[in-house]
């Protein structure tokens, strides 16, 4: 629905960390949108700023980090969008949004739940915080939530502690807590990274089913391209605090435009490709965000880098369509800049 | 019935007949068992045992890369470490064929007699951040095995360390730096250099790329491959990542609750698994191609692994197996043995593996 405003629109977000060793530009001009009812995957390696982007949305950036520029437009219903960067992170409005309208699932399910309280305590607390329910009604809703995320015998599990459950079960509980107040957006930060493949597959199925059922949007953060291919509608590829490429999932995997996306796809082993095949590599390492290279951040590792261009000037932002863009000089042939060359339809 | 019932030692005999050249095992593990006691109460009485490794038979051929896969808690790390005797095995034999062609049972040697063999079997650990001492320089870290083995001293030691660092792709000029100055990929190179500096023949690599970034992972995998070719190494590659294992391993052993449920050549195992657990593992791996979404058979296992201190009777996998038959798979007397299939190259521990047409990878599409 192109006439519809996106649920979340991040525009030129900059979140920097002011450390004693200098400023770390963890997120440095990130723009992305999350359409209603869609799953957007943010993919990138460690240190690319994907988690900080997500935490910036909820005002959860730890000291000494600060959002220094940009807008995060949040528009759950009709009416004017709210700019989340202008809200006080500890204020009443932000606290209502956090957990109520936007909620988050973290990477380590075992560490995210308190071992001092039962699953039920933690789930009921969230429900009563966001919904006007009495104790009994909240408990019934908690049981209902646990059943929805596929936990067997939810009445008994309500009185269990997190250490009595497996990692997969804990992640289901985390999802139940996140969905307790029917949020419009779920931010999932590497929710399956700590889990076994068999459990991961079931958690991904669950998220997909819940999304189909509730129509919520999902901002899914991961480094695993296999998971992206499995769940995403749209993909945002990040490298060193910037978005290098954006596009539909099929476009990203079958028509990658940025050299980094291309190299990343080439360096992962594909099952069914057969044994003993050498993998294509990306030379060097991901630089530390505090000493990022000038110009295009990827140029020291890029095979297509043009000397005197890529290492000097910031790469241009080439827009191919509403949800398709790339930051690379290779696609800058003048006509395409800001043009309306759309490739977001089905490719043959 | 073309199937014959015998344990894996018999099966390796079949393999030897099929492929004489490559079948000489450098390591032959027989009935290896590692039990960890569970202690409770004021007097710390032992109330039970976690059977982390539960009577494993496995032969590793010289020059091959043997993958060991399974979910967390299946005992794959314990198996790898007990073969190197980092963890003491409770029972069983680890028969190692040394350079002179003699067979030595490493499991029964005492610490002093084990030392010469510890130089020949080395371990690369998983986490490049916690496995290097932050107070030691690269020179000390990589040189330590040389120094403690007492064979090399002084400037020769420095030369050996420098050439080893160069071999794994690190510049020797970094020798006096500490690990914190290096990225995860570089630290894993240090880890590999430390394992290889004594010139081992067998390397046990315990999840060597799991903690690394996607773009660095490929570099380390290619490095391991090059070193294997150059130094004629044999790898025991422990991993939970089935796509990495497919890429680097010649053969794969699948573990479940301390037992091996299937061993086969990589191509065979991935194309045509013979154990339901292998099929389930393969179907759970997310494939990096959105066009494969929803393709193939989807098997979803229940989350909960049975308690390894108290495994279920019969086939350990029957509680989660979609094909389990009551009265057959859950009978204690009919616990499945590793059974070789017709070709003789592969074995699986499942009483129903012949009647089930299990689906592997790549059976659904032609691929991109």
TrEMBL record, chain B:
Pfam families: ABC_tran (PF00005), oligo_HPY (PF08352). SMART domains: AAA. It comes from the Bacteria. GO terms for molecular function: ATP binding; ATP hydrolysis activity. Keywords: ATP-binding, Nucleotide-binding, Transport. One of its GO terms (biological process) is peptide transport. Residues 38-282 form the ABC transporter domain. Transmembrane segments: none annotated. Belongs to the ABC transporter superfamily. This is ATP-binding cassette domain-containing protein. It comes from Phytoactinopolyspora halotolerans.
């Amino acid at each position: 629905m192109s006439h519809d405003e996106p649920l979340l629109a991040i525009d030129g977000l900059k979140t920097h960390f002011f450390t004693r060793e200098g400023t770390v530009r963890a997120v440095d001009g990130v723009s992305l949108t999350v359409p209603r009812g869609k799953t957007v995957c943010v993919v990138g390696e460690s240190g690319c700023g994907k988690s900080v982007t997500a935490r910036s949305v909820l005002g959860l950036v730890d000291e000494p980090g600060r959002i220094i520029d940009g807008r995060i437009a949040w528009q759950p219903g009709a009416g004017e969008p709210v700019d989340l960067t202008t809200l006080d992170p500890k204020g009443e409005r932000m606290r209502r949004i956090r957990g109520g309208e936007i909620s988050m699932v973290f990477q380590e399910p075992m560490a995210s739940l308190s071992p001092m309280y039962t699953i039920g305590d933690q789930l009921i607390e969230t429900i009563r915080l966001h919904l006007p329910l009495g104790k009994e009604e909240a408990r019934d809703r908690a049981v209902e939530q646990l059943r929805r995320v596929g936990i067997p015998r939810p009445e008994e599990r309500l009185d269990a502690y997190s250490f009595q459950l497996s990692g997969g079960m804990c992640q289901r509980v985390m999802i139940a807590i996140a969905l307790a107040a029917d949020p419009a957006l779920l931010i999932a930060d590497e929710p399956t990274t700590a889990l076994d493949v068999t459990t991961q597959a079931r958690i991904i199925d669950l998220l997909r089913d819940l999304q189909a059922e509730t129509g919520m949007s999902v901002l899914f953060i991961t480094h695993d391209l296999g998971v992206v291919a499995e769940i995403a509608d749209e993909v945002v590829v990040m490298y060193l605090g910037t978005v290098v490429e954006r596009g539909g999932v099929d476009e990203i995997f079958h028509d990658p435009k940025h050299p980094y996306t291309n190299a990343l796809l080439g360096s992962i082993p594909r099952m069914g490709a057969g044994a003993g095949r050498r993998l294509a590599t990306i030379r060097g390492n991901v630089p530390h965000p505090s000493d990022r290279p000038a110009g295009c951040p990827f140029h020291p590792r890029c095979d297509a880098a043009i000397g005197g261009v890529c290492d000097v000037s910031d790469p241009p932002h080439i827009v191919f369509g509403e949800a398709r863009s790339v930051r690379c000089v290779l696609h800058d042939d003048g006509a395409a800049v800001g043009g309306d060359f759309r490739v977001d339809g089905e490719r043959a | 019935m073309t199937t014959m019932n015998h344990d894996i030692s018999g099966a390796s005999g079949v393999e030897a007949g099929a492929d004489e050249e490559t079948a000489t095992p450098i390591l032959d593990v027989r009935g290896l068992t590692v039990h960890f006691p569970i202690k409770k109460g004021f007097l710390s009485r032992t109330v039970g045992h976690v059977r982390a490794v539960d009577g494993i038979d496995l032969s590793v051929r010289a020059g091959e890369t043997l993958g060991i896969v399974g979910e967390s808690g299946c005992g794959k790390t314990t198996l790898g470490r007990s073969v190197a005797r980092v963890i003491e095995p409770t029972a069983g034999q680890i028969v190692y064929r040394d350079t002179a062609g003699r067979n030595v049972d490493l499991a029964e040697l005492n610490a002093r007699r084990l030392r010469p063999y510890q130089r020949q079997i080395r371990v690369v650990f998983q986490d490049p951040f916690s496995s290097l001492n932050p107070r030691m320089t690269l020179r000390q870290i990589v040189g330590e095995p040389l120094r403690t083995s007492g064979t090399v001293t002084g400037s020769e030691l420095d030369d050996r360390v420098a050439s080893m660092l160069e071999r794994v792709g690190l510049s020797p000029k970094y020798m006096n730096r500490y690990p914190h100055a290096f990225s995860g990929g570089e630290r894993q190179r240090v880890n590999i250099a430390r394992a290889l500096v004594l010139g081992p023949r067998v390397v046990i690599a315990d999840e060597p790329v799991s903690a690394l970034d996607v773009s660095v992972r490929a570099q380390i995998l290619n490095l391991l491959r090059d070193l294997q070719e150059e130094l004629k190494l044999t790898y025991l590659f422990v991993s939970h990542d089935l796509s990495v294992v497919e890429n680097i391993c010649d053969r794969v052993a699948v573990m479940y609750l301390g037992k091996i449920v299937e061993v086969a050549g990589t191509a065979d195992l991935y194309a045509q698994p013979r154990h339901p657990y292998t099929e389930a593992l393969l179907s759970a791996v997310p494939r990096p191609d959105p066009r494969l979404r929803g393709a193939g058979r989807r098997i979803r296992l229940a989350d909960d692994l049975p308690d390894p201190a108290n495994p279920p009777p019969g086939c350990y996998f029957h509680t989660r197996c979609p094909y389990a038959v009551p009265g057959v798979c859950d009978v204690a007397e009919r616990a499945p043995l590793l059974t070789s299939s017709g070709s003789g190259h592969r074995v699986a521990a499942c009483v129903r593996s012949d009647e089930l047409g299990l689906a592997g990878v790549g059976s659904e599409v032609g691929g991109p």
